[in-house]
Amino acid sequence: MDLATATRRLAAHGQQSVLRFWGSLDDGGRARLLAQVESLDLDWLERVFAAEWRAVDPRHIAPPGDVVREGHGQERDAISLGEEALRLGRVGTLLVAGGQGTRLGFDGPKGEFPVGAVSGRTLYRIHGERLLALGRRCGRTPPLYLMTSDANHEAALELFAREACFGLPPDRVRIFQQGLAPAVDDSGTLLLDAPDHVAMAPNGNGGLFAALRDSGAFEHMRSIGVDTISYIQVDNPLSLSCDPRFVGHHLLRQSQFSCKAIRKTSPFERVGSYARVNGRLQVVEYTEIPAELAQRIDDQGELLLSFSNPGLFVWSREFAEAQAARRDLPFHKAHKKIPHLDAGGQLLFPAEPSGYKFEAFAMDTLPDAERSLLLACDRDAEFAPVKNAAGDDSPASARALMTKLYTSWIVRAGGRMVSPGAAIEVSPLYALDAEELQAKLPRGFEVTSDLYLGPGPRQT
Length: 460
Description:
Blueprint: H1 3-11, H2 27-39, H3 42-50, E1 61-62, H4 75-87, E2 91-96, H5 123-138, E3 144-148, H6 153-162, E4 173-177, E5 180-182, E6 184-185, E7 192-194, E8 197-198, E9 200-202, H7 208-214, H8 217-224, E10 228-233, H9 244-252, E11 257-263, E12 273-277, E13 280-284, H10 291-294, E14 307-308, E15 313-316, H11 317-324, E16 332-336, E17 340-341, E18 347-348, E19 355-359, E20 372-376, H12 379-382, H13 395-412, E21 416-417, E22 424-426, H14 434-440, E23 446-447, E24 451-453
Parallel strand pairs: 2-3, 2-10, 3-4, 11-20, 21-23, 22-24
Antiparallel strand pairs: 1-12, 5-9, 6-19, 7-8, 10-15, 11-14, 11-15, 12-13, 16-19, 17-18
Helix pairs in contact: 4-9, 7-11, 13-14
């Protein structure tokens, strides 16, 4: 694209200020800026900026309907089918890991954060060890599709190379970057963060569908026979990637989009709730649920809207590929503090929101699924997010939840907690679940201090 073409294209959308530093750029800077202008979809940008967010009409919100609970009549069939799918190599893990550890006071990708209560194992290592353990049990290691962001992509590549993919077969690890969307000011004008660069931001987890396509990940899945995608987030060390029970129920229902669901801690917990809206399963944000509806009880004494979203999904690959082909995927405007150049070329770091980033959410595609599934899971056993430096959803709360889970495994195996306050950590490479731990520990096993069961120097 030459300057005249770029000028006409930008002017047609009122964005010619992108070129305001043109006279100060060298040849390399001009080439970079023209290439970026050529890549921008300005029609799309104009459309999503003008779009108004529409709240859900409370009159159309209904309970989510059938929720598959533990002990469901088809439980054994589901587990058997899920294990068979893993043995056949039909299941892959999509690990979303675009975040940095900034809020945790950690300088680096969140996946490198040491969350192991005794061993100090990182989030990446914990997820990798689960896939290795599944491979040992099922005879085939599920492939890992790791989605990073522009902030940590290079660091992730270097880390996985240095750690030899945490023991995973290198040909079954694909690392790719989340897409970006341009940022604008409050009037919709593109922001610059350098004289030769339009400010860009990650386009939300809904951008993963296009990223899977553009990176060649879908093509890789097809080539090795993966038709089922298990989605987890890096900051949840208890997430059960490629959970045979979950995969099996998904396949039994021939579901396109399956979701795990956890009990809300209260009617007014600040989380989205699963519900039916105009007959379609979706997540309704807590801000859209009137207080009376949030507290309403059914005939069994349960909240009508009692289940929330822990971010644990299974998709059919076919459904995910169809979402990548869409041009109408909803985008949300997020009012943010966006570093940008002022009129004089100085880089500003605003103290208040200064513009909009555009994000798509994978959950917005749930109503498009003709066949969906909601599977109840134990909150304490599968949800220990690491998001805040202290308090709820912090490293301390996650370590406490992991210790609580592994303590229950030891007690179930006939062990005894002589030191009740001990931190307990079990690597999936030692025991993938309570049954496997029970088969390994002797009856009467006593825990007298912090305990780590797994590979490495901290094994007890």
